[in-house]
Amino acid sequence: MTAKLVDWLRSELNRLEQIAQAAAVADGPVWTHNPDDGWIVEGNDGPVIYDEGSPTGDQAQHIARHDPAAVLRRVAADRHLLDEHPLKQRLAIGPRMKARPVWVCATCGGDVREDPNAYPCLTVRLLAEGYGWEEPQ
Ligand SMILES: [Zn+2]
Fold this sequence. Notes:
By secondary structure, the chain is an alpha+beta fold. 44% of the residues lie in helices and 17% in strands. The protein has a three-stranded antiparallel β-sheet with strand order 1-2-3, with helices on one face. Strands 4-5 form a two-stranded antiparallel sheet. Helix 1 (2-27) packs across helix 4. Zinc ion (ZN) binds next to helix 4.
C-alpha cells in the first residue's frame, strides 16, 4: 500500500506532464482567454478551442487557467512536495532504552509499525487524493 500510492502518484505526475507537453506542441504552453471574444481559448498561433456557443465564457476561462504551462508548474511543485516526504528509516529509543529502527515520513515522522497510516503521511495522501487516488476498499 505504501509504495503503491507513491508509485501511483509519481506515475500520474509523469502522465500529466507528458499530456501537457504534448498539448503545448502546436500552440505553446500558455493559453489565454479574452472575455470579449466569448468562447475562444488562444495559444501562440491562434485559437486552441473554438466552436459556436461552446465553451461558454466561464468554461473558456477555466480551460485557459489550466493550460499546459499551469499543469507543468503544478506537476513540478507537487513532485517537489512528494520528494520532501520520503520514507526514511531512523533509530528510535524503545523499551529498556534500546535503539530500534523505525520507518517514518522523513518530514512528518510517525512509526509505520505502530501506525500503518504513518506512511504515506497525511500530506502525501491528500496530494494523491487531489489527483484522484482512492483508497482500496
Ligand atoms: Zn510527510
